[in-house]
Amino acid sequence: MAKRIIFMSLILTLFCSGLALEISPLQDFCVADTSSAVRLNGLTCKNPVLVEANDFYYGGLNLPGNKTTQSGTRVTSVNVAQIPGLNTLGISMARIDYIPGGVNPPHIHPRATEILVVLEGSLHVGFVTSNPENRLISTVIHMGDVFVFPVGLVHFQRNVGYGNAIALLALSSQNPGLISIENAEQILPEQVKFIPRHSK
């Protein structure tokens, strides 16, 4: 009986490991068909015969974003919404412009690891580890430096220089998602009530 349990556990482990692997693409690309009404995890594919170079192109990342937020940043996203050819490829990127003192406030990308390179200026960057430590890991980085924010962890950037700062970042998802901690704090008090534990 014990040998049978061990054998079944081994088979189950191998089966689960196989499911955890990322599936290889079944075609060269799957350009997003933004006109399709079909909804699924990702976007439906455009007919490959209709695919053209513009499906894989975005111009203008050399320009700062057109709107400054209250926190002093401008974000220019380049994801599947801007480049339909990114559909199913698992990558995206962005440019962030920071005014002096500008902050990209604490936030989470639930579906992506982020790697950031400073093109101009100096940034204080960091992330908070998960429980039980909840440690802040942070440093100041300068032009040419690179920093990585692991998937799903709260992270931030702040311009600590006297001039503007610019960063480029890459994300390991075509749609990394964004949860702003500030927005979450505004929503939660109305929807979540603290229920104290009953003492025994």
Automatic annotation (TrEMBL):
SMART domains: Cupin_1. Disulfide bonds join 30-45. SUPFAM superfamilies: RmlC-like cupins. Pfam families: Cupin_1 (PF00190). Mn(2+) binds at residues 107, 109, 114, 155. It is found in: Secreted, Extracellular space, Apoplast. Residues 1-20 form the signal peptide. GO terms for molecular function: manganese ion binding. Keywords: Apoplast, Disulfide bond, Manganese, Metal-binding, Secreted, Signal. Oxalate binds at residues 104, 109, 114. Residues 61-193 form the Cupin type-1 domain. InterPro entries: Cupin_1, Germin, Germin_Mn-BS, RmlC-like_jellyroll, RmlC_Cupin_sf. It comes from the Eukaryota. GO terms for cellular component: apoplast. Belongs to the germin family. This is Germin-like protein. It comes from Nicotiana tabacum (Common tobacco). The lineage of its organism: Eukaryota, Viridiplantae, Streptophyta, Embryophyta, Tracheophyta. The gene is LOC107771566.
